[in-house]
Write a structure and sequence with these properties.
The strands form seven sheets. Strands 2-1-5-3-4 form a five-stranded mixed beta sheet, with helices on both faces. Strands 17-16-18-19-20 form a five-stranded parallel beta sheet. It is built from 14 helices and 22 strands. The chain has three domains: about 100 residues, Ubiquitin-like (UB roll); about 80 residues, Alpha-Beta Plaits; about 180 residues, 3-Layer(aba) Sandwich (Rossmann fold), CATH 3.40.50.740. About 45% of the residues are buried. Helix 2 packs across helix 3, helix 7 packs across helix 14 and helix 8 packs parallel to helix 14. The chain is an alpha/beta fold. Bound molecules: iron/sulfur cluster (2 copies) and FE2/S2 (inorganic) cluster. The site of FE2/S2 (inorganic) cluster has 12 residues, from loops.
Length: about 475
């Protein structure tokens, strides 16, 4: 920690950080646009102005590019009219060519430009109606508005998942820096100069990357929006639950944003130890798939009877996303069944290399818990020894979709019961299938690939209110 003076008051702040972070640590918000905690600093928006004392007295400086140092004297808009005035002036420049789109803009409600505007205090526009907006963007996309003025391109389809609205771009370069430093695949560039600058892909190319939906999160305004969420729901109508992604064993920290029993989107929840501010497209797609093809029926007592009546061997296959509590419940069930029951767990999907961003590459999210519980995670052994078993109970394990060839040998097992959230191939290849909650709708614990214990919280969706969780179903089997 270091001691600095902020607005004539001595405060203790962490050392080795910039002024935006130092001020945040003592509860002072600094407006910013281009600065992002997980991207290299570029200092181009000039929104984060503060005054710091130098050899020639107090002078304006940008907070994002100024490291904190002991004894530093800082003035924010609280004590310095110059800072307040300068921030307002920068905003006026940023807004001079910005469209009046807030009512139809997807970012409204979580837009940093809106927030900064409110923080600065509303100012009357000095834009002359005769002059109007003068931003044209990429000549290939500019359009003529209802007043006959040439305007920047709107709703530009720059890739399979992202839409660009040129007029709303504040040229902060966050998207460019993300593609360059995080995705390590430079697909976006700021083209042209000065007031003509616009964001673009390279000629003839589309934006297409397994993490490109992150761009919609980090774009501080509504210039880059996510097709999967666009116009689906106003952000202020959403509630959110902090939970963990079971898409792989990293266990990315996420927000599940929902309303009226529907999950509309999954967003990264910053955890510097795990996924920082990033989340793969694949981990987000879960929200779009969650409400499709659900299995909401099933006869638990018929399944329970079938299990109890089985005299031969029983294989229980626990899926990759089972929580520690679910694993424990099925372990208890297996113990109650005695020697005839054998526990397996995992997935037929191959383990791939980590991508260094927010995916471990291991599709078995809770592998550490399965192994800790002594569950055999070699599912290949189950398919090889299929003929030994009389009953197979799969728990949120979509084995027939993951690897139809490998799973086909499991058809040798005469009784096959599937506990599954979806009416998938495993449900179709089973003699009895029962709908259960998805992991997004379940609470519990997972151990990620770094040994970090993380807690899931279930989202109350329309479907989860109709079916039991896997753990509750296991408890029913025990009665
Ligand atoms: S980017 Fe922000 S300020 Fe601009 S139209 Fe959208 S919500 Fe409004
Ligand atoms: S598109 Fe968004 S992130 Fe990219 S430069 Fe423009 S405002 Fe910044
Ligand atoms: S946040 Fe500091 S210049 Fe943009």
């Amino acid at each position: 920690m270091v001691t600095i003076t902020v607005d004539n008051k001595e405060v203790q702040v962490p050392s080795g950080v910039n002024l935006i972070e130092a001020l945040k640590a003592v509860g002072i918000e600094t407006p910013h646009l281009c600065y992002h905690q997980d991207l290299p600093v570029c200092g181009n928006c000039r929104q984060c102005l503060v005054e710091i004392e130098g050899p020639r007295g107090m002078a304006l400086a940008i907070g994002c590019y100024t490291p904190v140092s002991p004894g530093m004297k800082v003035a924010t808009s609280v004590s310095s009219p110059r800072v307040a005035e300068a921030r307002k002036a920068v905003l006026e420049f940023l807004l001079v060519n910005h469209p009046l789109d807030c009512p139809i803009c997807d970012k409204a409600g979580e837009c940093m430009l809106q927030d900064n505007y409110m923080m600065a205090g509303a100012t009357n526009s000095r834009l002359s109606p005769e002059v109007g907006k003068q931003y044209h963007g990429n000549p290939e996309h500019s359009s003529i508005d209802s007043k006959g003025q040439c305007r920047g391109g709107k709703c530009i389809d720059i890739g399979p998942r992202i839409v660009l609205d040129e007029e709303r771009c504040v040229q902060c370069s966050r998207c460019v820096r993300f593609m360059q430093h995080i995705a390590k695949d430079e697909q976006l560039q700021l083209m042209s100069r000065g007031g003509h600058t616009y964001i673009s892909t390279f000629p003839g190319e589309k934006l297409n990357h397994p993490y490109d939906r992150c761009l919609s999160d980090i774009c501080p305004v509504g210039a880059l929006t996510d097709k999967a969420f666009r116009f689906k729901k106003r952000v202020w109508a959403l509630s959110r639950i902090p939970t963990i992604s079971m898409s792989d064993s990293l266990g990315a920290n996420i927000w599940a944003d929902y309303a009226d029993g529907i999950v509309y989107r999954i967003m990264p929840r910053c955890n510097t130890e795990v996924n920082r501010s990033w989340l793969s497209n694949a981990a987000r797609d879960v929200a779009q798939e969650l409400h499709k093809n659900r299995l909401l029926s099933g006869d638990i007592s018929a399944a329970s009877k079938a299990i109890k009546e089985t005299t031969g061997k029983i294989a229980i296959a626990l899926g990759a996303s089972c929580t520690a509590e679910t694993i424990a419940a099925f372990k208890k069930l297996a113990l109650s069944l005695g020697e005839r029951a054998e526990l397996f767990g995992g997935s037929f999907l191959p383990v791939q290399a980590a991508d260094g961003i927010a995916r471990s590459g291991d599709p078995v999210a809770n592998r550490a818990c399965l192994e800790k519980a002594g569950v055999n995670t070699n599912l290949g052994e189950l398919s090889k020894r299929a003929a030994e078993f009389e009953l197979l109970l799969t728990v949120a394990a979509d084995l027939w979709d993951e690897n139809p060839e490998e799973a086909s040998s499991l058809n040798k097992i005469p009784k096959r019961i599937a506990l599954t959230p979806f009416n998938n191939s495993t449900a179709k290849n089973s003699t009895l299938s029962i709908g259960i909650r998805h992991w997004l709708e379940s609470s519990g614990t997972m151990l990620n690939c770094k040994g970090l214990e993380q807690k899931l919280q279930g989202v109350p969706t329309n479907e989860s209110l109709q079916v039991k969780s896997a753990k509750e179903t296991a408890e029913e089997f025990l009665i």
